[in-house]
Each structure stands twice: as C-alpha cells, then as structure tokens.
Design goal:
The complex is a heterodimer of chains A (322) and B (290). Chain A has a single domain, classed as MetI-like (MetI-like fold, Orthogonal Bundle). Chain A is 76% helix and 0% strand. Chain A contains 16 helices and no strands. Chain A has helices spanning 3-31, 33-56, 69-72, 79-86, 88-108, 110-120, 125-140, 143-154, 160-169, 182-207, 211-219, 224-249, 256-262, 268-271, 274-284, 288-315. In chain A, helix 7 crosses helix 10 and helix 10 (182-207) crosses helix 12. Chain B folds into 2 domains: 7-58, no CATH class; 64-284, MetI-like fold (Orthogonal Bundle), CATH 1.10.3720.10. Chain B is globular, with a radius of gyration of 25 Å. Classes of the chains: A mainly alpha (322), B mainly alpha (290). At the A-B interface, helix 1, helix 2, helix 6, helix 7 and helix 8 of A face helix 1, helix 4, helix 5, helix 6 and helix 9 of B.
Chain lengths: 322, 290
C-alpha cells in the first residue's frame, strides 16, 4: 500500500467516525421510534394544557379581547399590575390569605403530629388499625361533601349543633353566615378532613425507630414522657422540619376549592383570597387581562416561596423535593 | 411497646385510648348521622334530636330524589367521567412513563425537567380556561377529563416504579420480536397491576370528587356531575339567604339534602377498603426524585 493510499484511508476513517457519531444519534432515534411514539400523547398534553397557558400569561400585559386573540390584542405594559397593587382590595386579599395560612400553621399543623404520637403509644395493633381506618376516611370525600355536612350540622334551621346550643343558651349562632366565624369554620373543616391523613408520614417515620432505644432508656430509668421526649420526638424531628418548610412554600395556597365553597355574599370581606378573586374578576366579570395579572402575581410569588423553602430544606440537611 | 405496669402508665393508656376512640367517632359520626336521617321519616326528623338509628324508617327522601331525573342524570355523568376519565389517565400516564423510565432515551432529561416545572409554576386559571375553550372542549364532558389527563406527580412516581422492573424480562420479550409498545402492554403493565390499581383508585376518586372544572367549563345543567348538584342543593340554597343577586333556589327538606350527600359519598366508601389496602403502598411507591 502506498503512503497516499494510507492518507486517503485515514481521511476516510475520520469522516466515517463523524458519520458514525451522527448516525449513532439517528440510530438511537430509530431504535427508540416506538418509545417516541408512546411519548407523543403525553408530550402534546403537557404542551397544550400546561405550556400554552404559560405562554397565554402574556395576556396579563395586554388588554385581551377574546375576538382579537393573543396575537392582536393591544399591549398595555404593567397597567393591570399597577391597578391591582393600588386597589384597596389588594390588602384585604393579602390579609385574608396570610391570616388563613397562619391559622392553619398554628391550629392545623401540630395536630397530625400529636395524633401520630398518640397512635404510636397504642399497644394493641388492632385498635390502632381501627382508629387509623376511621380517621383516613374524610380525606377521600370531596370538599363539597365536607362543606355540605358542616352546613347541615350547623345551620340555624334545624342543624343539630344549633338545636343543642339553643337548648342550652336560648340563642342560635349563624356559624355559616357570620364573617367572624369564617376562619374558624375553614380551619375546623380542614382539621376534620385532613388531620388523620396527615399522620401517615409521621407514622412511617416512627415505624423506623429502633425499639432497643426504648429498652435502653427504660434500663436507665426513663419514664414514658421522657422516652417520648428523648426518643420518639427526635425520631420525627426531621420530618416535622421538612413539612413545616414545605408548608411555608405553599403559604399562599389556601385551598381554593374549599374556600370557594364556603364563600357567601356575607363573608366575602374576610374570605376572599387571591385565587377566588381571580375567578370572580376573570370568569364572572370577564376582566381577563386583569385577573390573569393577579394570577401571575400569585404564581410568581408561589414559585419564589417554593424554591426558597426547598433551598431552606436543603440547608437543614434534608433532601429537597425538587 | 412495652412499659412497666405502673399506675401512671395505666392512666396514660386509658386516657390515650379514650381520646383516640373519641377522635375516631368524631370522624364517622357525621356520616352515620346523615345516613340515618336520610332513612328516617320526615315526621321524626321534625321532632329534632340526634338520630343515629331511625325509629320510623322511611324511603320518602329517596323516592323524592328519584322522582325526577336530575339526580339520576348527574349520577350518570359522574360515573361516566370517572370510568372514562380514569381509563384515559391510566393510558396516558403509562404511555408517557414507560419511555421516560428508559435511561438511554435521548431527550429524557429535558422532558422530565419540563414535567417537573409544571408542578412549580402554571399559567393559572384564566389562560388555562382560554386554552380549554379554544380546544372546543367547553360544555362537553371532555373538559372534565382531558385537561387533567396526566398528573405530573403520578407520572413521575409511575416512571420510578417502571425503572425497578428488571430489564431481563423486557429483553427476553424483545428477543422474541416484541417492539417497545408490545413490551409495555404485554410485560410491563401486567407486572405493574398493583401500582396501576393504586393510581387508578386515586385518579377515580379525584374524578368523582371534582366539581370546580364543571363549574368553570360546563353551563348546561344536564351535564352536571353529582358534586355540582350537591353544591346547588345543600350549600347554595342555604348560603343565598339574604342575597338578591340570585334566583331563589328552594331549600329542600333535611332528609332530601342528606340523601343527596349519601349518593355523593357512597362510591368513595365502597372503594375505601381497596384504597386503604393500596394507599400506604401508593404513598411510598417512589420518591419524586428523577
């Protein structure tokens, strides 16, 4: 073989490897053609119902008219945001949202921990399982049913609670119409529906505790409360911290469906939150761009809070969720 | 756990058991009360008092709600969207989860990230409404099934589940001439029945319970699912007192309202034992980590 030939063949090999590289990509695509075909419906779903609405957010910077569409509606910059932040109602919404979140944090958050600890102290597996079976049920019924049940039990017209209160005090309390009862109602309904379900994650953490630790503590003369304090609680401390942080990440999510159902013309002043405001302005009053702007404000703050809380969770040495 | 049988411990246990029993009762008593009252004669209900077992049985509430076809229609709608919607959920979710479980698939990470991002940020109610409208889905039952065809969370958990299935099983089918679609339907899905049952139950419960999409997308009250009807009869009729903006909806007698609640809840209570068997597994099936 001459040197020239060798050069040519080397050149060829070089070209070939490039072709090979490219064709490796093409080959992978061809090999996985059925895979991509299967991905197609899901990818289309996420594009159409998740990403196109994200693109649609630009209507918040327009005066969107449905007959003009996104392409032709006039741009107005941040007009809607300026209006929203200068509305006196902005502070009402802010206060209502934050107050509900704080109420939830103070009154709801500790309860699943307490209930899980109580269940953990039960020696009879049968009794424990039975109570668990009962307290998980309300998680699966709809908010409509939960709110409906509260309406029926608490109404001033024949509701069993008001009959009782009337028999004792001679007066009735309009729990469902009086604005001052609104937050109490929301939090109690959340407690009734979700506390039992909330114990699952703590019970899972508790099931991993080494029983020998209790044994050793007892040898050292630790009583029941001390065992609870020094062994059981530290075992779920990490879980408590991460759930608390995640809860802060969802601070603005006050449970839209729930609040929507509980809102009445009389309690709107204390009950209206960002999400319900978006619904009222957007879909019942057709102020599309304005309500999209409010929605964007809420999603952006929400994203910031979730990422921030996740960062915080990692700082605490917990695995982040995202 | 073992504790010394001191008096203090006995009191602790006693109090703990009693409190737990009360908590357990507080969760189920409202259901029992509502079931009992719905079967009680209006005459006994009118006398008031707490009824846990009817003295005078009566089916009049049920006769009444089945005398018109309103409830029957909305039950039909709910059953339809639950059955068809869940089938769509499972099909779409598994079709997408399986390719994403293949580590060598090009573009996999990009798609996973894009899916994850939708859990953090969304276009919000108004832009989503316009997309559903532009797709021509409004006022059709599809608007209750297609816009939530895949839950990003379920998708990722199912993907993680698929990853745990040993590759050897899939390879042997491939050697026998099966393509990837065949492998999914003949090997992977049959092996994943417990996981599919779990996701199916959770999807089904969420379809049965949904009401807000119907309020947003459906105007025709012949197409209302049972939850929307329930809201109309039990909540709106009462909360509109003193509100002039709405047409006065007649407040139905207590027994009738309760009978409607029973119908909106019973399917959940029927599947609950199955749910309970699966959900502990379902919750722990996999982590969100890609």
């Amino acid at each position: 073989m001459s040197t020239q030939n060798a050069e040519v063949s080397a050149n060829n090999i070089d070209k070939k490897s490039k072709v090979l590289q490219r064709s490796a990509f093409a080959k992978d695509l061809i090999r996985d053609k059925w895979m991509y075909l299967m991905l197609l419906p899901g990818v289309l779903y996420f594009i159409i119902f998740k990403y196109v609405p994200m693109y649609g957010i630009i209507m918040a910077f327009q005066d969107y008219k449905p007959f003009l569409g996104i392409m032709n509606s006039p741009w107005v910059g941040v007009k809607h945001f300026e209006r929203f932040f200068s509305e006196p109602q902005f502070w009402d919404l802010f206060r209502n949202t934050v107050l509900l979140a704080v109420y939830n944090l103070v009154f709801f958050f500790p309860l699943p921990i307490v209930l899980a600890l109580m269940l953990n102290e039960v020696r009879s597996e049968k009794f424990k399982g039975f109570v668990q079976t009962l307290v998980y049920i309300p998680h699966f019924v709809s908010w409509v049913v939960v709110v409906g049940i509260f309406y029926i039990l608490l109404t001033t017209e024949g509701g069993i609670f008001n009959e009782l209160i009337f028999a004792l005090t001679g007066t009735k309390i309009a729990f469902l119409l009086e604005p001052e009862w609104f937050r109490t109602m929301i939090v109690s309904q959340s407690i009734w529906k979700e506390v039992g379900w909330g114990t699952i994650i703590f019970l899972a953490a508790l099931s991993g505790v080494d029983l020998q630790l209790y044994e050793a503590a007892r040898m050292d003369g630790a009583g029941r409360w001390r065992q609870l304090w020094h062994i059981t609680l530290p075992a779920i401390r990490g879980t408590i911290v991460i759930l608390l942080i995640l809860r802060l990440g969802n601070f603005l999510d006050s449970g839209f469906e729930h609040i929507f159902l509980m809102l009445t013309p009389t309690n709107r002043d204390v009950g209206e939150v960002f999400d319900t405001y978006v619904y009222v302005k957007g879909l019942t009053q057709s102020q599309f761009s304005y309500s999209a702007a409010v929605g964007l404000f809420k999603s952006a703050v929400g994203l910031f809070l979730v990422l921030g809380s996740n960062w915080l969770a990692k700082k605490f040495g917990q695995e982040g969720v995202y | 756990m073992n504790y010394d049988k001191t008096i203090g411990n006995k009191i602790f246990d006693g109090v703990n058991y009693v409190l737990l029993a009360i908590i357990g009762l507080a969760t189920v008593l409202p259901f029992i009360y509502i079931l009992a009252v719905s079967f009680t004669s209006p005459h006994e209900v009118a006398k008031g008092g707490f009824i846990l077992f009817p003295k005078e049985w009566s089916l009049s509430a049920y006769e009444y709600i089945f005398s018109t076809d309103t409830l029957i229609k909305s039950l039909g709608v709910s059953i339809y969207i639950t059955a068809v919607g869940t089938a769509i959920n499972l099909l779409f979710t598994s079709l997408m989860a399986y390719p994403l479980a293949r580590q060598t698939l090009r573009g996999r990470q990009t798609i996973l990230l894009a899916v994850l991002f939708t859990m953090l940020f969304s276009g919000g109610m108004i832009p989503t409404y316009f997309v559903v409208k532009a797709m021509g889905l409004t006022n059709s039952l599809w608007s209750l099934m297609i816009p939530n065809a895949i839950s990003a969370f379920n998708l990722i958990v199912l993907k993680n589940f698929f990853q745990q299935i040993p590759d050897g099983l899939e390879d042997s089918a491939r050697i026998d001439g099966c393509n990837d679609v065949g492998v999914l339907f003949r090997i992977v899905l049959p092996l994943s029945m417990p996981a599919l049952a779990t996701f199916g139950l959770f999807y089904a419960v969420s379809h049965w319970n949904q009401f807000f999409n119907a309020i947003m997308y459906i105007n025709d009250n012949n197409k209302w699912p049972v939850q929307v009807l329930l809201r109309e009869i039990v909540i709106l009729a009462q909360s509109r007192i003193g509100d002039t903006g709405f047409e006065e909806t007649e407040i139905q007698p207590l027994t009738i309202r309760m009978a409607v609640i029973v119908f909106a809840t019973i399917p959940i209570l029927i599947v609950y034992p199955f749910l309970q068997k699966h959900f502990a597994k379902g919750v722990m099936l996999g982590s969100v980590k890609g």
